[in-house]
Design a protein that fits this description.
Protein name: Transglutaminase-like enzyme, putative cysteine protease
GO biological process, one term: proteolysis
Number of domains: 1
Largest sheet: 10 strands, antiparallel
Number of helices: 6
GO molecular function: peptidase activity
Distance between the termini: 27 Å
CATH class: Alpha Beta
Mean pLDDT: 88
Structural class: alpha+beta
Shape: globular
Number of strands: 18
Radius of gyration: 20 Å
Organism: Thiocapsa roseopersicina
Strand content: 35-45%
Low-confidence stretches: 216-229, 234-241
InterPro entries: Bac_transglu_N, Papain-like_cys_pep_sf, Transglutaminase-like
CATH architecture: Roll
Length: 329
């Protein structure tokens, strides 16, 4: 049974005096496929701007925004409505040769998966490998999917979730040392764990729907971005436990037969209708929802606020949205 979800994501940058802006990249439009249908999507920008849409190297939909005048406030108001059908990913059949670990990808698959196989932090690999050993059997075989589920559940159970406003993602070694992190930190740790096992993994950004958050207005949060000419919005200016009601991050692992299977180690979700993907990339840094720059003194930057609302709507509301495609890129 499908569900209809509406997302509103507003980001505002403020400055002490009018500053000039370079081109900004915005990623908010969900990746449509057999499990997600985009009914409506729009992006409103202030001050006056010109925008056009492209597909990046990963085929994510990216809005390139040219700001046409200086301003003291830069505001991105992104909204979309989707129909989410969900997929029972843990029930998808894995090819017989890949059901048990270890296995080898086919020669063709290895060529296509090459960008998603090498660890991003090879110096952290020994520590990650030692940590992963606890999820491997002392003897005998283990199903590939069970290893990944064990790793996901291990992160969920043994690591503390700690919202962080600062940009960037912790190195896997740092997450292992602190035993805490954000959704993007947990996603990266599991990506590096999977890649260390020879499995292809990619970073996924998007939104998390939580039924318990239906109804209340969006919550506005600040972000302590570094002052200077570059600015971006990180994945998890989270305003609720474990990433709900905000931008979110998880990962995909490629299993022959089942394809790219989602794993959310922050919440031990494996698909369904709660994960709303927007982009997938090789590294977390490539999936920032907003990135760009401005020209002025570092002291001109006053800060950023983010407001995110993810709520379920009924079919009648969704139909009304689909009939009014204004702003559809």
């Amino acid at each position: 049974m499908s569900v209809f979800i509406e997302v509103e994501h507003v980001t505002t940058y403020r400055y002490a005096k009018p500053v000039e802006f370079s081109r900004h990249k915005v990623m908010f439009r969900p990746r449509a496929a057999h499990d997600i249908r985009v009914l409506r999507a729009r992006l409103e920008v202030s001050p006056l701007a010109r925008q056009h849409w492209v597909h990046d190297v990963f085929s994510n939909s990216v809005a390139l925004v040219e700001l046409l005048e200086p301003a003291q406030e830069l505001r991105f108001d992104a909204r979309f409505t989707i129909e989410h059908f969900g997929v029972r990913n843990l029930e998808l059949p894995v090819d017989p040769e890949a059901q048990n670990y270890p296995f080898d990808y086919s020669a063709d698959d290895r060529i296509d998966l090459a960008p998603f196989l090498p660890p991003q932090y090879p110096k952290d690999a020994p520590g990650v490998s030692d940590w992963v050993k606890q999820f491997m059997p002392a003897r005998g075989v283990i199903q590939t999917r069970d290893i990944l589920r064990n790793i996901s559940e291990g992160i969920r159970g043994d690591f503390a979730y700690a919202s962080r406003e600062a940009m960037g993602t912790q190195r896997p070694a740092e997450t292992l040392s602190l035993r805490s992190g954000t959704c993007r930190d947990f996603a990266l740790l599991m990506i590096e764990s999977a890649r260390g096992l020879g499995l292809a993994a990619r970073f996924v950004s998007g939104y998390l729907y939580d039924p318990s958050l239906d109804g209340p207005p969006p919550v506005e949060v600040g972000s302590g971005l570094q002052q200077g000419v570059r600015q971006s919005e990180s994945f998890d200016a989270e305003v609720d436990t474990r990433g709900a009601g905000a931008t979110h991050a998880w990962l995909h692992v490629y299993l022959p037969g089942a394809g790219w299977v989602p794993f959310d180690p922050t919440n031990t979700l494996f698909g369904g209708t709660d994960l709303i993907r927007v982009a997938y990339t090789r590294t977390p840094e490539q999936a920032a929802p907003i990135s760009g720059g401005w020209t002025g003194s570092a002291s001109d930057y006053l800060g950023m606020t983010v407001s995110v609302s993810v709520r379920r709507i009924d079919a009648e509301q969704a139909a009304a949205e689909a009939e009014d495609p204004a702003g559809e890129p």
